[in-house]
Write a structure and sequence with these properties.
Residues 16-429 form the Amine oxidase domain. This protein is an alpha/beta fold. It is 35% helix and 19% strand. It has 14 helices and 21 strands. The structure holds flavin-adenine dinucleotide.
């Protein structure tokens, strides 16, 4: 059984937030930290995989929030590292809406429908009455009459809102609204390896085992005023003064980690109130490309009566020319449905959809990749999804510490939940808070030591000479006392 010395801080999870917190601690001289990661890698929801001849991003793919007044720190790190990216504007998708017979909506109508649908959907999501949207979205006779373009567009918008993290738009403007797709063989995760290299890896690139332990699934946290005991699935026990827990909101809602004493009610209620979003990118490889390319054609939409049914498509020609890869994104129920079936079934469904759009003669896909974020017990979601007009109290309760356990992760970011930069900033914030706590403890210990030393002094009425000689016996530099730093009353000295 492994037993490690007590750490100042244990960080649970090596995603962007956990690593950002660790970096802050290390930079502030708290070297006595240990990261326990459940999986066999660092990165969490930032993950690349080889597919065909290129690297595809199973999790985060875009650096979002770029081009505004304030620099997005993730964009800055990416630029410094020379991470290859390409501008990607999915709002163009509204001009490329295919119906089931492969007809593309005339762009004028599609654009007009889109605008109306966005306005109405925003009204609806804000809780403002909007009869036309109510009518359109609550229709029950779908099988009888086909949906009109406006109804299909509304479906798309609602799907789009779910996909793009429903976040108050006003908080988004600081960093800007441009989005860049990571198109680098080293993957988005390269950013994390570089961020962690100074404190997690040796100069030969080997993991520092006293700092990071992989395949350590934390199952129990026992906490008291004095510290936290962390138990892992393989029976190991670790002790720390503080814990930073960066597991996703989906994990917090599951029973993977138990707390003793249990988390207070305000905390569990806040955790339950946060919706989780499941978002799945399915990658399909083809022998050649049969879809339109060129400006404004990167994204296209399949308008189907069933909302979210293989709706949102993207080709990867801009990122990797000649890769012949299409990506289709699914959300929530559709994601869960697809995760639970075989990849062969998913491939068949996707091919029917593509043949609706592009005709029967298109070639079969030669390969498929279906990530499973929902069924991954270390994730149980793609990201947090607070309601449009979110209750700040919920977010601050999710973030608030319980005793010596501090919570971090994208879901604790008030301004950028759901994003990589949200996770990064949350980690920095939590790291700084824990550094402050440690400093407070140090000051308190100093004061306690001081009163421990002072007690005998105060009990006896000493002359200055006696006091000094008594201090010498305690092995404390007399200088410190005489300079008054520890607050010995003048009268004694
Ligand atoms: C499909 C998808 C697409 C996305 N697209 C974008 C995008 O384009 N742009 C963008 O900005 N963001 C995007 N995101 C969101 C972004 O990936 C996340 O917001 C961010 O990576 C979350 O980082 P984190 O550190 O909070 O959590 P995570 O990355 O999940 O890190 C938490 C870590 O904790 C570990 N862990 C969990 N439980 C335990 C346990 N019991 N014991 C030990 N370790 C544990 C996990 O294995 C994980 O490594 C996307 C996410 C997904 C899934």
């Amino acid at each position: 059984m492994e037993s490690s010395p007590r750490s100042a801080v244990i960080i649970i999870g090596a995603g962007v937030s956990g690593l950002s917190a660790a970096k802050v601690l290390a930079e502030n001289g708290i070297g006595d930290l240990l990261i326990l990661e459940a999986s066999d890698r660092i990165g969490g929801r930032i993950r690349k995989e080889k597919f065909g001849d290129v690297s595809v991003e199973l999790g985060a793919g875009w650096i979002a929030g770029v081009g505004g007044k304030e620099p997005n720190p993730v964009w800055e790190i990416a630029a410094k590292l020379g991470l290859r990216t390409c501008f990607s504007d999915y709002s163009n998708a509204r001009f490329n809406i295919y119906d089931r017979s492969g007809k593309i909506f005339p762009s004028g109508i599609a654009a007009d429908s889109y605008k109306k649908a966005v306005d109405s959907a925003i009204q609806k999501l804000k809780g403002v009455e909007s009869n036309s949207v109510e009518e359109a979205t609550n229709r029950t006779d779908l099988s009888l009459t086909p949906k009109t373009p406006i109804e299909l567009a509304i479906d798309f918008i609602l799907h789009d809102f779910e996909m793009a993290e429903v976040e108050p738009i006003s908080t988004y403007v600081d960093f800007g609204e441009r989005e860049f797709l990571v198109a680098d063989e080293r993957g988005y995760e390269y950013l994390l390896y570089k961020m962690a290299e100074e404190f997690l890896f040796t100069s030969e690139g080997k993991i520092l085992d006293n700092r990071l332990k992989l395949n350590k699934v934390v199952r129990g946290l026992q906490h008291s005023r004095n510290g936290v005991t962390v138990k892992t699935e393989d029976g190991c026990v670790y002790e720390a003064d503080y814990v930073i827990l960066s597991a996703s909101i989906g994990v917090l809602q599951s029973d993977l980690i138990s707390f003793r004493p249990p988390l207070p009610r305000w905390k569990t209620e806040a955790i339950e109130k946060c919706d989780v979003m499941v978002y799945t990118k399915i990658f399909l490889k083809f022998p050649y490309k049969f879809w339109p390319c060129g400006p404004g054609k990167e994204f296209f939409i399949y308008a189907h009566e069933r909302r979210g049914y293989y709706t949102f498509w993207q080709h990867m020609e801009n990122a990797y020319p000649g890769s012949n890869i299409l990506v289709v994104t699914l959300t929530n129920d559709e994601s869960k449905r697809v995760e639970s079936q075989s990849d062969e079934e998913t491939l068949k469904e996707a091919m029917v959809v593509l043949r609706d759009m592009f005709g029967p003669e298109i070639p079969d896909a030669t390969d498929i990749l279906v990530p499973r974020w929902w069924n991954n017990r270390f994730q149980r979601c793609s990201y947090s999804n607070y309601p449009m007009i979110s209750n700040n109290q919920v977010i601050s309760d999710i973030k608030a510490p319980v005793g010596r356990i501090f919570f971090t992760g994208e879901h604790t970011s008030e301004r950028f939940n759901g994003y990589v930069h949200g996770g990064h900033l949350a980690g920095i914030d939590t790291g700084k808070t824990v550094v402050e706590e440690i400093r407070k403890d140090e000051r308190q210990n100093d004061t306690q030591n001081q009163s421990f030393l002072l007690e005998p002094l105060l009990a006896l009425t000493l002359t200055q000479a006696d006091a000094v000689s008594s201090l010498h016996k305690c092995d404390v530099p007399t200088q410190l006392y005489l300079s008054g730093k520890l607050g010995i009353p003048e009268a004694i000295l």
